[in-house]
Amino acid sequence: MDFYTRNSVFSELRDYCHLAKKDSFMEVTEWKNGEGWDVSINEKHFSLTHGEMQLLTILTSIKS
Fold first, then answer.
1. What DSSP character marks residue 61?
2. 50: domain range?
3. All residues at 6 or more sequence positions from 37 whose CB lies less than 8 Å from its CB, including other chains
4. Is residue 35 in some structural domain?
5. Is 1 among the domain residues?
6. How far is CA 59 from CA 26, 44, 45, 52, in A?
7. In 3D, which of 36, 4, 38, 35 has the Cα closest to residue 26?
8. What is the DSSP letter of 9?
9. Is residue 3 part of a domain?
10. At 56, which helix (H) or strand (E)?
11. How far apart (Å, rounded) are the C-alpha atoms in residues 24 and 35?
């Protein structure tokens, strides 16, 4: 059995999104192997690798 600690950061979403409800939040937790993140936004959960996060950042910063 392995025990380990993962890096995680949590924030209330309302400070960043005017559409967020009072108790909305986002939490990002780094994978144990360091190759990506688990993301929770309220009841939504998904995982991203470094490459996926990089492309998401690029695509959301493009201005047409």
1. H
2. 8-61
3. 28, 29, 30, 31, 47, 48, 53
4. yes
5. no
6. 20, 21, 20, 10
7. 38
8. E
9. no
10. helix 50-61
11. 27
pLDDT by residue for the chain (64 residues), tens only, comes to 989 999 999 999 999 999 999 999 999 999 999 999 999 999 999 999 999 999 999 999 998 7
Predicted local confidence at residue 21, as pLDDT? 95
Angle (nearest 5°) at CA 22 between 21 and 26 = 75
In the chain, how many domains are there? 1
- Rg of the Cα trace of the chain? 14
DSSP one-letter string for 13-51: STTT-TT--TT-EEEEEE-TTSSEEEEEETTEEEEEEHH
